[in-house]
Amino acid sequence: MRVITIDDDFDAWRAAALEALAQGLAPEMVDWRTSQAEPALFNESAPSVHSTGAPPIRVSRELAALLKDAAHCRDARRWNFLYRVLWRWAAGDRSAASPADEDGARLYKMAKAVRRAQHDMIAYVRFRQRDAALGAPEYVAWYEPDHDVLAWGAAHFAARMGRSTWLIATPDGAAMFDGERLQLERRRAVASDHAADAPDAAEALWMTYYRSIFNPARLNESALEQHMPVRFWKGLPEGALIPTLVSDARGGARRVAQAQSVGALGGKSVQVDALDAQPERDAPTSLDACRRCDLWRNATQAVRGAGPSGARIMLLGEQPGDQEDLKGEPFVGPAGQLLDDAMQRAGVPREQVFLTNAVKHFKWEPRGKRRLHKTPAQQEIEACSYWLEQELHDIGARVIVTLGATALNALFGRRATLSAHVGRVVPYRDKLVVATYHPSYALRQNDEAARERTVAAIVAALEQARELASPSQ
Ligand code: URA
């Protein structure tokens, strides 16, 4: 077995792979390892130390692109795998690059995952403007790509943000643009003991890196310590602040801090092609991992529907509110209390209905120390319809009561107006929809008589749903 140790990048692997091919080393005779060299500042164009005179082999344009993309996949065995594909190709076995082949299929899957991560990066990186008095960089962003796409994403932003200076920090490294030159710093997943001795040039990067990772609302202490070892804090002017910030966040100031920091942020719009910003999404593996829209970023958690799987009535609200976001259950805040009273009056036991929302993450904006509900955008309603569809399918309720305009919109589209539907029964696929007001609307009404009329309309809709859902109907 020959161990080939390379820098963890495509060019290094390609040069070494050509050499291994030239020596006739079969894939099973080679174990590819990556060097644990200390992180080093490097330029994209820096020549690889592994360049050799090994003869190139001809591969199709498509295979070249697949290999290059798949090389950025977070798969510890990728260099071994890519070498096997290349070996097979060099031996004349073209099926190695076919999606019908086992290796080919894996290659396509890896490349696709990386391209998706590239799209995600340009869609989801959010630059935050720093205080001008702090000097460069003017903008910073913290981002956690699913695959190793920092260099690609950085080149994208460098081409689009003019001469602004910026830094993108990720768990595996940082990219900095000084208005002219793009510089990348790779950092091993496990920080080496030499991190504290980082050269001066890197120190400015790390100071900014710290600022951008310290979002108290998303504090992950072990990650903070892994990527910014405690011993390194003392080298930073802000280092002394970290323990206080951490203990504040632990002590329950997290939500307030989030509201304040979000409110205080400036920003810069980055023009992104619509197609890039809205890549076609594969099915997410779970609601908790859903990134179909951006709302997950500022929410505590996704709130899925709750209730018996055989419920004959589904109540469809808009989105979780402040308390639902914290507890992870629908309708447990003030609107839920009003709804509970209405259900009781209508003779609809809460335990027998399935309660859910059109949008599963809380959308809000800071207002002082409060998180103020914000109506979800059409795009967010549409992105989340993926989950609503699953619930409609899984629960199979006969009657759906839509609470408010967003719920109605989620089923019938934005042209369906609440005023035209309230109190009516409308067929929807194999179901019946009863549209009514949202309980929050009643809560917002100061006039007591008007509020009682709204509550009565909700009660009437629930009674109607009970009748329509009865097995004799
Ligand atoms: N409002 C809603 O629409 N849904 C909830 O779960 C809570 C408040």
UniProtKB/TrEMBL annotation:
InterPro entries: DNA_repair_put, DUF4130, UDG_Type-4/5, Ura-DNA_glyco_family4, Uracil-DNA_glycosylase-like, Uracil-DNA_glycosylase-like_sf. The keyword DNA-binding does not apply. Keywords: 4Fe-4S, DNA damage, DNA repair, Hydrolase, Iron, Iron-sulfur, Metal-binding. Residues 304-463 form the Uracil-DNA glycosylase-like domain. SUPFAM superfamilies: Uracil-DNA glycosylase-like. Pfam families: DUF4130, UDG. Gene3D superfamilies: Uracil-DNA glycosylase-like domain. The keyword Ribosomal protein does not apply. CDD domains: UDG-F4_TTUDGA_SPO1dp_like. One of its GO terms (molecular function) is 4 iron, 4 sulfur cluster binding. GO terms for biological process: DNA repair. Belongs to the uracil-DNA glycosylase (UDG) superfamily. Type 4 (UDGa) family. This is Type-4 uracil-DNA glycosylase.
